[in-house]
Structures are given as C-alpha cells and as structure tokens.
Amino acid sequence: MNRHSPKVAQSLLSEVQYGVRWMVLAVLGLALAIPQANATPTELVPLNGPGHFRVTEKDGTEAIYYPVDPGSELQYAFTGPSKVVIWTRSTRPPDQPWIYGPYLKLPVQADGWNVIDLILRPRLTPMGTVDKSSGSFPILADKMLVDIPANCSTLVLKAPSGGPALLIRAVEPEPGDAILSSANSTATPPSNPADTEKPDEESPEMWEAKDELAVSLFEEEEPEEAEEETPIAPAEEKPEETTAEASEPEPLAAVATPEPLTMKARISQSIRNTRVGPQLGAGAPIHGTQISPHFGALASAEILPILWDGWKPEWGSLHLQAGLSWYSLKVDEELIWQDPYTGPVTIDVEYRTDVIPLLFDLRYELPIELGPVQPFATLGAGAAFTRRVEGNAGNRGFAGSNRAALGAAISAGPGLGLASMAWQGGRKNFGLLDPEGDSAKEGLGVLRLELAYLVSF
Q1: How far, in whole angstroms, is CA 91 from its chain's centroid?
Q2: For residue range 178-235, what is the model confidence (pLDDT) as tens digits?
Q3: Three-state secondary structure call for residue 380
Q4: What digits encode the pLDDT tens for the residues 255-277?
C-alpha cells in the first residue's frame, strides 16, 4: 500500500486543484453578479393594478407607472422592514391651471398603519399653469425614499380624494439614497416587541447584507454561520406571521413582463380628461351678402399619446374633437335684369340658409411653444342639416360638410382657450338650375374667426 500512496496523493491533489479552479470561477461570477443586481432597482408591481403607462423620464429612459383614481389605492406585496422609492405624476394635462391647492398628501401605509404622508407639489409656471418640462404627465413627487421600519406584509399607496388621477411608480432603493423619516406619521406602528426589536437585529441595509453574503462564500472556517446569515427576507424567518401573498415574492420580480394597460382603461383615462365648452365665431360666406354668425359646442379629448405607448412626447399631441354648431348664410340684394322688350327690371332677392353641422375633427398640437401659446392644426368632416327659408317657403335636406383650421391654444383661468381661422365648406342642391338647365349646387362655405373655451370636469 505504501507503493500506491504517492499515486493516490497525486490523484487527490489533481481533484482538489480542479475543484478550486471551478470554485474561483464561481466566486468571481457571483462577485460580478451582485453589483449588477444592486445597479438595477427592482420595481414593485401592484396586486390590483389594471395595467401600466410607459413614461419617458428626463434622462430619456422609459419607466413604468401604474394609474390610480382619486380616493383609490394601489396594493403591493411588500416585506418589511425595508425601504421603497416612490415617484408620482399627475394625469391632468400640463397646460391647465392647478386647481387642487398648493399641495396634496399621499399616505403610505404598511399593514394598515400610516408610515408617512408624502407631500405632492406641482411645478408651476409664472402664469399659474403646470410646467410642461416633465412631459404629458407632470411630476408631483420625484424619487422619494421612504423607510418602512417595522414588520409588514403589505404596502398601500392611496391617492388623495381631492386631487387628480395619479400615475405611481414604486421600486426598491439604490445605495446612497436619502431616507424620508417616518417621525411625522399620523399613526403608530404595531407595539409587538418582535417588531420593535427587528430593526435593531437587521440594522445593515439590504445591499450591505448582500455584500456580506458574497464575502461569506470565501469563509470556509464557519460554514454554519454563513448559512445563518443568508436569509434576508423576514418572511422566511416568521412564515406564520405573513400572508400567503407575502410569502411568495415572485410578484415583485414580475415587472419584466407587466400586463399592459387595457384599451378600455386607456379610453376611460382619455374620457376623464375630456374638455367641453362653447364656441362662437363670425366670418364671410362664399355665397351670401352679410356676415355669417356661428354658435356651437365643442368637446375635445386627447388620444395620443394616451392610447399608444409608441407615441413620443416630442411628436406633439393629437386630440379628437366633436362639435355641433349652427351658422347662417343670408342673401339680401337687388338684381337688375335687362328685358329686351320692357327694359331694365329690378328683382329683390332675399333668403336665408341655416346650416347645422355635426363634425368630427382631429386637432394636432405642434411640438413647439411660443411662450404660453401652443399652435395647432385641425382637419375634420361630417354631415350637416340644411334649411332654406325664402318667404313662406322652405326647403330642408342634408349635405356633407368639412372643416380645416389653423390656430393657437392658450391656458386661461381653469380652462383652455382656442382661437383659430377656420374654413367650413359644403354644397347643397336647393332645386335651382344653371343656365343650361342642369341642377346647380350652392356653396355653403364660410371663412371665419372662431373662439372656444374648454374646461375639464
């Protein structure tokens, strides 16, 4: 047996060297993976969210936000003690005045107790409108880090009932973020002694715990202590105190493939931001002798980028408009006709044509600003009810109608003012004949100045 001992020792040495090489490669890979994991924050997905919006941040990256109506809440599976970073945006269009007071409060609740009330403040322009620099969804709270000091299994973010619908994003923090103290919370955390002692037992932050875990892989002298330090989530230490949802942290990692916001939810969001208001104007008719008055009602709803994530804010915005109006074309003149037998004959011509069009327009707001003015172009079509009144006789019917306009929008008070130079056209046969005896259609066109004032409800 002594003759075989060198061979056995050489074989064992070879196996040890082979194992050490693979262990070194594994340790190096883990050391590279842990910083990479720390560099990418983990986003939290609400358990009750209907879908998401993709919003372009100031640095050009896209972030996922979840909508919540006033007075409603987003619920998350969340294991405390830990920390969370919160962003909040408003869905109210940025070109409208802020009518919700100087600030709003967003309660942050863990298992029913209030951790802190986040203060939401809009960025306003000198004219009192919401600043457009942060895009179509103005920022109210930017990267606010909240410390959840006690054990919990759920996190709730509740939108204030007196404000607009919100878009909320919540992620795990990154190293170096400052913490918002929970000393001003409006409720007291649970008085369970285990809850109060837990923060002292796990005082190192989450990323420090991961670093210690990486270092422990190199310490072969105390493997049992390294195994005891590996659990990070309190839910594994006390499974009996957590809910079924909290004991399965998979939903927190599901942000890679979140459910898109349904088209029904997107349409509902667009309808909530619809503006309505009166419209009036006056202009010169193509077939008439007097100024043509115009009265109507207009409704406008933004459809892009709300209905499509691929639409970029730097492309401007597209709005769908529906308008019901009335305008009149009046003719009152004297015509002189030369009769070859009796000489000149004077004919009085007097009639009025009422036009009631129902139009659907697309209003494109250009991605440029001239101070507080936002230029736009409009193109649309529809149908019109017409009535010719001439003495005691009348002629009714329907005709096609179209409209094109160039104008500017400006925020004024609680609403939005629109001023435009518009052309509205159409043709209708009222039973007249041309000199050749064929049916002749009369023009219903008008070039006019239009003013409208729209507000949201």
Answers
A1: 5
A2: 555 433 333 344 444 344 344 444 444 444 444 454 444 334 444 444 444 444 444 4
A3: strand
A4: 334 455 677 777 877 787 789 99
Nearest partner of 167 among 310, 47, 51, judged by Cα: 51
> What is the pLDDT, as a whole number, of residue 176?
57
> Selecting from 1.10.3470, 2.30.130, 3.30.450, 2.60.120, what CATH number does the domain 53-204+233-260 have?
2.60.120
Bigger pLDDT: 439 vs 236: 439
CA distance 428 to 256: 58
pLDDT at 121: 83
- As a whole number of Å, the end-to-end CA separation of the chain is 95
What is the arithmetic mean of pLDDT over 294-307? 89
Range(s) within the chain of domains with CATH label 2.60.120: 53-204+233-260
| CA 92 distance to own-chain centroid | 8
Instruction: Locate CATH 2.40.160.20 in the chain.
Output: 274-456
Say how many CA atoms lie within 13 Å of 65 toward its Cβ. 27
Token pair recorded at residue 158: 């509740």
Q: Residues 112, 117, 118, CA angle at the centre, nearest 5°?
A: 130
* Domain at 274-456: CATH architecture: Beta Barrel (2.40)
- For 36, phi then psi, to 5°, come to -65, -40
Q: Are 148 and 198 in contact (CB under 8 A)?
A: no
> At 143, phi and psi to the nearest 5?
55, 65
Q: In whole angstroms, what is the distance from residue 384 CA to residue 400 CA?
A: 6
Residues 6+ apart with CB under 8 A from 359: 321, 322, 323, 325, 380, 381, 382, 401, 403
Q: Which of 53-57, 154-158, 333-337, 451-455 has the lowest mean pLDDT?
A: 333-337
pLDDT for 16 equals 59
Q: Amino acid identity, residue 21?
A: R
CA 439 to chain CA centroid, Å, is 53
Nearest Cα residue to 42 out of 269, 271, 232: 232
Nearest to 422 by CA among 314, 298, 304, 305: 298
| Residues in Cβ contact with 122 at an 8 Å cutoff, skipping those fewer than 6 apart | 90, 98, 130, 131, 138, 140
The vertex-435 CA angle with 343 and 357, nearest 5°, equals: 115
How many Cβ atoms from other residues are within 10 Å of residue 432's Cβ?
A: 10
